[in-house]
Amino acid sequence: MTDLSLPNLPGSLPDKRQVAASFSRAAASYDSVAQLQRDVGSQLLSRLPPAFSPERWLDLGCGTGYFSRALGEQFPAADGLALDIAEGMLNHARPLGGAAHFMAGDAERLPLRDATCDLIFSSLAVQWCADFTSVLSEAFRALKPGGVFAFASLCAGTLYELRDSWREVDGLVHVNRFREFAAYRQLCAASGLNVVSLHNVAHVLHYPDVRSLTHELKALGAHNLNPGRPGGLTGRARILGLIEAYERFRQAQGLPATYQVVYAVLEKPL
């Protein structure tokens, strides 16, 4: 159950329909447990070029629209677009406003004309895209010359404590797998976009117990969606084995859960 390093390996990421359905179901509970998502998106906003003032922005993978609203406040004169693959998220976000237009769509095939955006902002969404080359190609196509693609994603090493604890129990795929940071670096360099910044930052959250972590992942819609995941209910003996294995990671603050976050700011050449 190792992390897969190849960027576009078939079967290594979940089917998009499952992703959309899972996040649609989580729309109502998402914001109540999304502290990491808010922290990461705020960090990404702070990494935009200084004095940057887009005429049109796209919140790619907008979810509940939290950062659509933040972008609307930061760039009040701009035309805002919010896009997500999960209809349930869009239904939740639309009444809250922030963007002029909310639309269903896929990051690998944007429903936009060429050179229509000055900023594409995407926080913790593109890790679910199996073909990241297409994501970059579509961003390049949809951006105006001089436009910015700013994204935050997850890479290999995310939730390694949970993954390693499950490995001791049964060796099955229980934790979502993400591409290596080196793959992001390679694909961004080959995209035709100029790499303004690209960093891997670890965010560590702490929980009182394993159940608190797994319940949060389910409320976010980010529980195990990988091909090869076990079907049916998890037996009591395996849950007890997981709890025992995870306790070995316990720190003074609680049980750690590490998220390896990729922060990237890319610019389309003039």
Portion in beta strands: 15-25%
Cα-atom radius of gyration:
18 Å
Order of the strands making up the biggest sheet? 3-2-1-4-5-7-6
- Give the helix level as a range of percent: 25-40%
Distance between the termini: 44 Å
Structural class of the helices, strands and pairings? alpha/beta
CATH topology (fold) name of one domain: Rossmann fold
CATH class of one domain: Alpha Beta
Mean pLDDT: 86
Largest pleated sheet? 7 strands, mixed
What is the subunit arrangement here? single chain
CATH superfamily of one domain: Vaccinia Virus protein VP39
Order of helices and strands: HHHEHEHEEHEHHEHHE
Tell the overall outline. globular
Explain what this protein looks like in three dimensions.
The chain has helices spanning 16-25, 27-30, 35-46, 66-74, 87-93, 132-142, 160-169, 181-189, 210-220, 236-246; strands spanning 56-60, 79-84, 101-104, 117-123, 143-154, 194-207, 255-267. Helix 6 (132-142) links the parallel strand 4 and strand 5 (143-154). It has a domain at 16-157 and 176-204 and 259-267: Rossmann fold, CATH 3.40.50.150. The protein is of the alpha/beta class and 270 residues long. Strands 3-2-1-4-5-7-6 form a seven-stranded mixed beta sheet, sandwiched between helices. The chain is built from ten helices and seven strands.
Which helices and strands occur, and which strands form pairs?
Layout: H1 16-25, H2 27-30, H3 35-46, E1 56-60, H4 66-74, E2 79-84, H5 87-93, E3 101-104, E4 117-123, H6 132-142, E5 143-154, H7 160-169, H8 181-189, E6 194-207, H9 210-220, H10 236-246, E7 255-267
